[in-house]
Amino acid sequence: IVGIARCSGLSLVENEILPQCWEQISHKHVERRLLVAESCSALAPYVSSTIRNSLMLSMLQQMLEDKDDSVRDAVVRSLALIVTFMDDKDKYFQCQELSMATLDDMSPNVVGSSIRILIPVLAKWALDLGRLQSHLLSQLLQRLKTLIKKASPAESPVSLSHRKNTNNEQKAAWLVTVLQTLVPYIVMSVAAVDTIINRISSNTPIVERQEFSVLGHGLTNPSVFYEGEYDVGLILGSFESYVSQEWYEDWPELEWICNTLLPELVDILKDIELSQELIVSSFIKLLKFFCSCFGNSFTRLKVQPLFVKKLQHLEQRLMDVGQGTNWPSLTIVPLYLLGVISSMQDDEANEELCVQLKRFLCALPVCGAALDCLVMSLQGLCKEVSYQECVLNALWEGVVHPRPIVRSAAASLFAVIVGNMPHQLVATRIAPALVTLASDSDMSVRTATIPAFGTLITNTAIKEVHDKTYMQLQSFLSDQHTRENHPMLLQLVATMGQLINACEAWFREEIILPQLAGIALYALQLTNQTRKIDLAIALVEAFSSAVYCNLSKQTISSALLPGLRYLEQISGQSLPSHHDTVQAMIKGAESRIEVQRPNERAGSISLAAATANVGQGVEDMKQRVSKIFQNKPAVNRPTNLPNIPGIFRKK
């Protein structure tokens, strides 16, 4: 077709080929419709602008509703080429609406092509026409607000299906990605103005933004789409120098960013829940990319103050919770730490990051707030080597804090970061900190360390760390106060169940299974039905992990089966919903050994006997790791508490 068009001229293409294409746009075979969509881009250079702006655009508009994803994907690509050739500015609004329609498509491939190809081409045209901020970005912001509200769990009606809500969340995340794609255009719309360009001189530094190329293609790189007189690096250098001044006069494009775009984006955050991970992660990427592209000076002067103000408001909301108000959204915490502060990557930013982490760590537990926002923040920060030391310093502040609730929070957060830290830091910083907390005078703090010790086994392969952990867990199990503390006993059972397939064989057979059997007997003898059922449910979960792991016949007959039979009695009496599961586990265990007659079965194991064995194990382990605790860190807890009303304020 292209060969014919090249040799025949406009007349044949417009009067013969295009009418044939028009007749095929509703053909029953997808291959024909796909050929039409691809032909539009192939023939675009060989037709007049009038035909391109009318007939071709109409054909593509109609085919955007095709039922086949591959056809719509080809339409998006052809539409991008048509927009590139477009010379009629009156058609801009039609092209913008068509582009918005592609973002509503249910196919990830179609939306992906739109974000990678069509939207950047449209943004270039909008930038040239002076409509980037006033039309394209404004419409995207409005659509994003609407979708965020629709996707919000709090706003969604009970009858709204989970699938529909998930679709809204996905669409909102795509729109945030669109805004991220447009950041280079936003930067140039602000920087490539007379106020900045007129300041360029021989002394102007050249600023290279590697971030402009991270999207993986050249369409969004200013060096590709910007057609001005000066090099992009010079313009960015002049912009950086200008906004670094103590005082400077704003201009319309900058005012729109500072007074409209940024405040509206920050305001949207209040409607986002941490559970909406897709949207949250998209926003973090957007903010980090935005701040990196605009530079540290702009971020500190224009972006950071907006978040500080919101955090101060959050502080007040947290203080008012006790007076009957609802819990505020804490989504802004990881967005600020991961999206704004971590983007600057200098000493001042590192210091600010440490200060904020310590404040949040000390404040949120005291207020009774959930730690999900800190979990997300720490997981993100630990992935970057430059922030790992900062994270550990902040958590150590929690280790030595005078309030048990803060020390418990620090212990639980260590469990979150173990898998993201290098082994050297796990051995020298995390394990010693957990050992310190494990000897805490407060039982709730000691209980909070148990899951963290479990992660040391499941997420590391350091023998020294494993030895520390085995000894500490045995110490917990042999403590006579363990049975008296129901939360601690539940946590030990849950952690042993998680460890049973990851720990060494001797620990599994000599410690975990005898202990689980002993705890099952203890649960059977409990008179408190609530505690009995709690323990039974935890034991079912733990034993379900034990039934199919590698065990000796001796351990199966002397520990696993007795424990399961105790559990069978409990489930028969108090937990009928789990009775069949327990019986199935007993059959599975019996199938692995030669079933003994009842009078030949191993005697019942008592919790006291199991504890005695563990006590001996502790002594043996102490000999193996006696040197490990020589350098146990000292704990110097401050006696004065921080001023809670000022915990979120930037110093």
TrEMBL record:
Gene3D superfamilies from the UniProt entry: Leucine-rich Repeat Variant
Domain of life of the native organism: Eukaryota
Keyword annotations of the record: Repeat
One example of a Gene Ontology biological process annotation: intracellular cholesterol transport
Keyword match Repeat: yes
Per-repeat ranges for HEAT: 56-90, 430-468
A cellular component term, taken from the record's GO annotations: recycling endosome
Stored InterPro entries: ARM-like, ARM-type_fold, HEAT, HEAT_type_2, RELCH
Protein name: HEAT repeat-containing protein
